[in-house]
From TrEMBL:
The keyword Glycoprotein applies. This is Uncharacterized protein. One of its GO terms (molecular function) is serine-type exopeptidase activity. It comes from Hymenochirus boettgeri. GO terms for biological process: proteolysis.
C-alpha cells in the first residue's frame, strides 16, 4: 500500500507485498541515485529463546545532518521489501528532522533487502519471519543505539507507512518505555481473511471522475471470462499482449489471468498520483484519470477493446514488454528459497502477511471484477506452500493475529494518517481514539 501526496505520508517501496501484486508488475524500488552508506547491526535471530545465541547482520541507514543537542531520534521502520536508501535524502520526515534537529535512522526489516537472518528462505527458516520478532529487533536495535551513541535521553519517534506503519503503532504499545510517539501512516492495523472491501474502494475511486468507469470495466472483465469459456486463448493472448500463449489447464489458471489484469487496475488506484519518483518508480504518470479516460472513450471500440487498451497502455508506461500471466511460473518462483543479493522476499512476504489474511477477493457485488473469489486466493496459498495452507489454517492464524492485536491498547501519542482512496484505509484507524490518538484523513483531488 502506498499512495497520496501529502505531508506526513511516509511509505516504503512495497506495501503488504504490494497487495500481493504479481512479481512482474511490482514496483521495484530502484537503488538510490545518491550513494548512501550502509551500516550493519548485530541482531539476535530468535528474541524469544534465551538459549538461542545465533546472530545475523541487519542493515540500517543514518542521516545525522540535522542533529541538534536535545533533538529527537526518528526511527523509520522498514517493511516487507528492501529498505530504500532514497529515504535517507528525501521525504517529508527529513523536513521535520531539519525543523526539530532530529537524528534519522532507518532499520531494514528482517528477511528483506540485504537483511538476511538465515542462510536461505526455507520453510524451516521462515518461522523466524514474524512481526513479533521484527518488533523485538527494533527494540534491541534501539536499546543498543541508546547505549552506544548516548541517545538514551532523546525522545524517540517511530515512523512507518503501510505494514511498517502498523509496526510503528504496535511498537509504541509494546515498548512504551522506549518510544515517545508513533506516526503510523496508512497502517492496516486490523487483520481480515476476506478483504473484499478492497475492491469496493477501488470501485469508488474509479467512479470519482467517471461515474461509468467501474461499469465499463465490469462489462469488459465479463467479456474476458466469456472468451475464456470459449477457449479463445489466441485472441486474449494477442489483445492483452501476453508473453506466452495463454495456457489454461484449470480454473486457477483462468482466475490467475483475470487477477493479473485486475491487479494492474488495483495498482493504479493504490498508487494514484503518488510522489515516489524519488524512490526510482518510473510509472507515476499512470493514474485513475488515464485509465478511466480510456474506458469512457467511445472511439476506442467496445468495453473489452478499451480494457485491452488500458492494459497495453499501463504495461507500456511501466516499461514492460508483455504481460506474464502464467500461473505455473508464478507459483514456481515462490518456491525458490535462495536469496537474491537484495531480496524482495516475496515468498516470505506472502507467508508472513498471510497471518493477516488480506485476500482481495471479488466477492462483493459493489466492485468491478469477476472471477477472483476468496477460494482462488486460498488455493493459491495451498499451491505455493502446501495443502496445509487451507482456509481453516489461515482463518486460525488470522484469528491469532487479531487476538494479539485486540489485546493491544493503543498508547497515547500516535497519529494514523490515511488517504481515503487508498483501499487499505478500511483496515486502519479512521477516527480519533482519544485526544492524542489521532486519525488524519486525507482527501485526494484529481
Ligand atoms: C541528509 O539529508 C539531506 C537532505 O536530503 C542531505 O542533504 C544530506 O546530505 C543527508 N545527510 C546524510 C548524512 O546522508
Ligand atoms: C475530479 O473530481 C474532483 C472532485 O470530485 C474535482 O474536483 C476535479 O475537478 C475532477 N477532475 C477532473 C479532471 O474532472
Ligand atoms: C479518444 O481516443 C482517440 C483515439 O486515441 C483520441 O484521439 C481522443 O483524443 C480520445 N478522446 C478523449 C476524450 O480522450
Ligand atoms: C532460485 O533463485 C536463485 C537466485 O535468484 C537463482 O540463481 C536460481 O537459479 C533459482 N533456482 C531455480 C530452481 O529457479
Ligand atoms: C485444513 O488442513 C488441516 C491440516 O492439514 C486439516 O486438518 C483440515 O481438515 C483442513 N481443512 C479443510 C477445510 O480442508
Amino acid at each position: 500500500m502506498a499512495r497520496v501526496l501529502l505531508l506526513f505520508f511516509v511509505c516504503f517501496g512495497s506495501s503488504l507485498c504490494d497487495g500481493f501484486i504479481k512479481k512482474h508488475h511490482r514496483r521495484q524500488a530502484a537503488p538510490s541515485l545518491v550513494p548512501v552508506e550502509e551500516y550493519w547491526f548485530v541482531q539476535k535471530l530468535d528474541h524469544f529463546s534465551g538459549a538461542d545465541t545465533r546472530v545475523w547482520k541487519q542493515r540500517y541507514f543514518v542521516n545525522d545532518s540535522y542533529v541538534q543537542k536535545g533533538g529527537p531520534v526518528f526511527l523509520m521502520i522498514g517493511g516487507e521489501g528492501p529498505a530504500n536508501p532514497a529515504w535517507m535524502t528525501s521525504g517529508a520526515w527529513l523536513t521535520y528532522a531539519e525543523k526539530l534537529g532530529a537524528l534519522c535512522l532507518m532499520l531494514e526489516h528482517r528477511f528483506y533487502g540485504k537483511s538476511h537472518p538465515t542462510k536461505d528462505m526455507s520453510t524451516d527458516n521462515l518461522r523466524y519471519l514474524s512481526s513479533q520478532q521484527a518488533l523485538a529487533d527494533i527494540a534491541h536495535f534501539q536499546t543498543i543505539m541508546m547505549e552506544s551513541l548516548g541517545l538514551a535521553e532523546r525522545k524517540w519517534v517511530a515512523l512507518g507507512g503501510s505494514y511498517p506503519g502498523s509496526l510503528a503503532a504496535w511498537y509504541r504499545i509494546k515498548y512504551p518505555h522506549l518510544v515517545h510517539m508513533a506516526v503510523a501512516s496508512s497502517a492496516p492495523v486490523k487483520a481480515l481473511v476476506d478483504f473484499s472491501g478492497y475492491l469496493e474502494v477501488v470501485q469508488l475511486a474509479l467512479a470519482r471522475n467517471h461515474s461509468d468507469c467501474p461499469k465499463t470495466i465490469k462489462v469488459a472483465s465479463e467479456e474476458v471470462i466469456n472468451l475464456l469459456s470459449h477457449k479463445n486463448y489466441k485472441k486474449l493472448t494477442a489483445d492483452f499482449k501476453l508473453c506466452e500463449l495463454l495456457e489454461i489447464h484449470s480454473s486457477m489458471d483462468e482466475s490467475f489471468f483475470i487477477d493479473t489484469l485486475a491487479e494492474y487496475i488495483m495498482n493504479v488506484v493504490q498508487y494514484n498520483m503518488d510522489n515516489r519518483e524519488f524512490e526510482g518508480v518510473k510509472d507515476t504518470s499512470i493514474t485513475i484519470q488515464v485509465v478511466c479516460d480510456i474506458m469512457s472513450n467511445n472511439s476506442l471500440g467496445d468495453s473489452y477493446d478499451r480494457y485491452a487498451t488500458v492494459m497495453r497502455t499501463i504495461t507500456e508506461m511501466n516499461g514492460e514488454r508483455c504481460i506474464d500471466a502464467s500461473y505455473k511460473k508464478y507459483t514456481q518462483d515462490f518456491k525458490n528459497a535462495t536469496w537474491t543479493p537484495v531480496s524482495t522476499g516475496d515468498s516470505g512476504c506472502i507467508r508472513h502477511v498471510r497471518n493477516f489474511g488480506f485476500f482481495q477477493s471479488s466477492d462483493s457485488t459493489a466492485q468491478p471484477f469477476s472471477g477472483i473469489p476468496l477460494s482462488y486466493h486460498v488455493q493459491q496459498c495451498s499451491d505455493i506452500f502446501g495443502p496445509e495452507f487451507n482456509l481453516s489454517m489461515i482463518t486460525d492464524s488470522v484469528q491469532k493475529t487479531m487476538s494479539f492485536m485486540e489485546d493491544l491498547k493503543y498508547k497515547a501519542a500516535t497519529s494514523f494518517p490515511n488517504g481515503l482512496i487508498d483501499p487499505w484505509h478500511l483496515l486502519g484507524i479512521n477516527s480519533d481514539l482519544s485526544e492524542d490518538l489521532i486519525a488524519v484523513q486525507m482527501e485526494v483531488t484529481f
